[in-house]
């Protein structure tokens, strides 16, 4: 009797564990048909600087959806937050391209009905259905803003802008370098090596074989001895440059804007090797408790006005082409400064973050997946 | 006292075990239901795995996490660093605590003694984070330390964001937890023994080494349990004042839970400090740390 129950119980839990993910997949396949009345609350996971009062307050006044924002310091953290507590704690997330596919294949986000997003048709063509948020023609998110990862330097130490990423691997600046504490940082080194050591055969910095990873790890382990601190939050890097502990490092334009506003003598540049970058997507949780507010939010932040505010605040480029005029209205010359009118070639030269997978893109399956990248990063940091 | 309370108290009086049980009930639920259950869950989880793309936990029995920990020397290295700094902090605090404890108990009048006690305890009233951030400002490149060194014509020190910084900050943070038990232990040494030692011709240092030190040993070990375990489990101080190569076991656990979402791997690594503490407590018991309890 006891045995029979045990067997039945095992069978039951087995069925449940197989059926549950399928059920999740099915429920996630039905996008919203119309935007109904807002639920009064919206829980947001966002990058620092993505939920500023400048546009959150007007949004709350216009829709009645109270915004609760949770900032995340890395893509990994965003994925973990969206999966925490059964996946219904947060409604929307501003995921970068190295998180989006993980959220899609993890059934953590739901398809978006683009008919309900009027601004979408004004996006630059590259962001109307990019492969990092659109799978088999199904849109799992709405593109937002994009930009390059930059080389930040002290103008006291570098009177002229460095032209190569080599300065962050240079023993001359030992103990004065800072880079993000983030496994995706491996791609920056891979991009640098793809230009300086073509014999390695790196064609895509996110598709690395074990041999290529070994070469990149070697460069980064050499760099580890030169690092002052691996920064986890943008505010960490800002403090390092303010106190003079760091004089050169990898950064986002946001840090440059904040430091220059505080009169710290710094500037940033994109060296000749090119740059990695991010293209962010607003995605809606598969189990969002407030889907109507989520759609209202996406529509609000893709309007030219908010796109321009966000672009100027963070120092990045809007997806909506109509934002250019708004940017110049808010701050003369801003559209050109933040590449709002840049040609497609500028977009194409940035190697946007994406999730490393075992599929190499060239038909081979011998590339390292993201777990391997994370382990490699821990080994580099020591 | 109201009637029901009175009735209860008389029951507890007549049957002693009722009183004991009712006093122990809440802590027992806490210890058994929450603490032991959590450790058990952690231990079980350490044999599970995670689906890479979906992030879902896969229950089962797999040694893959432990194999990964053993295969990569990084994790042994991080464990060594954690234990080494915890030990260094403990030794530093013992050395710093002795003069303070001795002055407090043997050399001060009641008023000075109360003042010293307050001075030791007051830092504990402010937030741990505020004190760590304060050290970050003191030790940074253009911080108070380098300013003071420049004022007296000495070259600046580059110890902000380094393992040196962690050692200093940890030693500062946990010092009160060493001073209190050492002071209590010194107080318990009968003055007659010290006089006897002097009468027999021992000078000051020999008395300290051969009488006071052995008698205060349980107090020192009790303090060491605090300083060692608090350092061993910390991850905030390494995050804030550490530099390159400053990750602790706690940082790897934190990164794997909150950032990477690889909870089984974190659980596997978290088993290690449990073992370290078990060995430490066994040695502490041998040295008599629990005799005074």
How do you describe this structure in short?
Chain A is an alpha/beta fold and 382 residues long.
Descriptive report:
The complex is a heterodimer of chains A (382) and B (293). Chain A has helices spanning 2-28, 53-63, 75-83, 97-105, 186-196, 210-224, 234-243, 253-261, 291-301, 304-314, 323-330, 334-337, 344-349, 370-381; strands at 41-47, 66-72, 92-95, 134-135, 138-139, 142-148, 150-154, 177-180, 227-231, 248-251, 266-269, 276-284, 317-318, 351-352. By secondary structure, chain A is α/β, with parallel strands linked by helices. Chain A folds into two domains: 31-147 and 278-349, 3-Layer(aba) Sandwich (D-Maltodextrin-Binding Protein, domain 2), CATH 3.40.190; 158-274 and 357-381, Periplasmic binding protein-like II (D-Maltodextrin-Binding Protein, domain 2, 3-Layer(aba) Sandwich). Mean pLDDT of chain A is 89; it is low at 9-28. With 293 residues, chain B is mostly helical. Chain B has a single domain, classed as MetI-like fold. In chain B, 76% of the residues lie in helices and 1% in strands. Chain B has 13 helices and two strands; from the N terminus they run ααββααααααααααα. Chain B has helices at 3-14, 16-45, 64-71, 73-107, 110-121, 128-139, 144-151, 163-188, 191-199, 204-232, 236-241, 249-259, 263-286; strands spanning 49-50, 57-58. In chain B, strand 1 (49-50) and strand 2 form a beta hairpin. In chain B, helix 4 crosses helix 8. The longest helix of chain B is centred in the N-terminal third of the chain and has 35 residues, at 73-107. Chain B is globular, with a radius of gyration of 24 Å. At the A-B interface, helix 3, strand 9 and helix 14 of A face helix 4 and helix 12 of B.
């Amino acid at each position: 009797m006891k045995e029979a129950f045990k067997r039945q119980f095992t069978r039951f839990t087995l069925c449940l564990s197989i059926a549950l993910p399928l059920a999740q997949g099915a429920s996630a396949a039905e996008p919203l048909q119309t935007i109904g009345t807002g639920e009064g609350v919206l829980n947001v996971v966002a990058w620092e600087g993505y939920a500023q009062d400048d546009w959150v307050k007007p949004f709350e006044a216009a829709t009645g959806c109270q915004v609760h924002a949770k900032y995340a310091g890395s893509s990994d953290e965003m994925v973990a937050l969206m999966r925490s507590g059964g996946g219904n704690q947060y409604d929307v997330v501003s995921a970068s391209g190295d998180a989006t596919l993980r959220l899609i294949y993890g059934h953590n986000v739901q398809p978006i009905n683009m008919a309900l997003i009027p601004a979408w048709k004004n996006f630059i063509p590259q962001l109307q259905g990019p492969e990092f948020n659109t799978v088999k023609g199904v849109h799992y998110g709405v593109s937002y803003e994009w930009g390059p990862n930059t080389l930040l330097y002290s103008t006291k130490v570098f009177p002229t802008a460095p032209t190569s990423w080599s300065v962050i691997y240079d023993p001359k600046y030992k103990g004065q370098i800072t880079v993000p504490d983030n496994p995706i940082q491996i791609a920056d080194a891979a991009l640098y090596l793809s230009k300086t050591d073509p014999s390695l055969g790196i064609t895509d910095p996110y598709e690395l074989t074990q041999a290529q990873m070994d070469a990149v790890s070697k460069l980064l382990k050499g760099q580890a001895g030169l690092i002052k601190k691996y920064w986890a939050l943008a505010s960490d890097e800002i403090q390092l440059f303010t106190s003079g502990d760091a004089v050169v490092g990898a950064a986002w334009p946001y840090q440059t804007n904040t430091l220059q506003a505080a009169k710290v003598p710094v500037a940033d540049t994109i060296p000749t090797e090119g740059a990695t970058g991010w293209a962010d997507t607003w995605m809606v949780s598969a189990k969002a408790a407030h889907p109507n507010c989520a759609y209202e939010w996406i529509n609000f932040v893709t309007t030219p006005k908010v796109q321009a505010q966000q672009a100027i605040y963070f120092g990045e480029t809007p997806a909506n082409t109509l934002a250019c005029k708004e940017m110049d209205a808010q701050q003369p010359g801003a559209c050109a400064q933040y590449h709002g009118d840049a040609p497609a070639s500028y977009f194409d030269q940035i190697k946007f973050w994406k999730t490393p997978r075992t599929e190499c893109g060239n038909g081979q399956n011998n590339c390292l997946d993201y777990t391997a990248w994370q382990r490699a990063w821990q080994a580099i940091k020591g | 006292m109201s009637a029901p309370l009175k009735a209860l108290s008389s029951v507890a009086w007549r049957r002693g075990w009722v009183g004991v049980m009712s006093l122990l009930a809440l802590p027992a639920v806490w210890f058994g239901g929450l603490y032991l259950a959590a450790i058990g869950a952690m231990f079980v989880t350490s044999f599970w795995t995670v689906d890479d793309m979906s992030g879902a936990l896969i229950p089962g029995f797999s040694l893959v996490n432990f194999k990964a920990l053993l295969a990569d020397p990084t994790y042994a290295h991080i464990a060594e660093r954690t234990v080494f700094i915890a030990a260094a902090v403990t030794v530093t605090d013992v050395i710093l605590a002795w003069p303070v404890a001795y002055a407090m108990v043997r050399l001060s009048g009641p008023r000075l003694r109360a003042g010293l006690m307050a001075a030791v305890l007051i830092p504990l009233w402010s937030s741990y984070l505020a004190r760590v951030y304060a050290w970050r400002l003191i030790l940074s490149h253009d911080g108070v330390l380098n300013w003071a060194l420049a004022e007296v014509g000495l070259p600046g020190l580059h110890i902000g964001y380094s393992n040196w910084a962690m050692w200093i900050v940890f030693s500062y943070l946990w010092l009160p937890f060493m001073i209190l038990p050492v002071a209590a232990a010194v107080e318990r040494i009968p003055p007659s023994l010290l006089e006897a030692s002097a009468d027999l011709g021992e000078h000051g240092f020999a008395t300290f080494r051969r009488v006071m030190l052995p008698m205060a040993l349980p107090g020192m070990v009790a303090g060491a349990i605090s300083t060692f375990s608090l350092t061993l489990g910390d991850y905030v101080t390494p995050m804030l004042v550490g530099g390159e190569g400053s990750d602790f076991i706690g940082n790897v656990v934190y990164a794997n839970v909150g950032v990477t979402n690889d909870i089984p791997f974190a659980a596997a690594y978290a088993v290690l400090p449990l073992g370290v503490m078990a060995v430490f407590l066994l040695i502490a018991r041998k040295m008599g740390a629990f005799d005074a309890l």
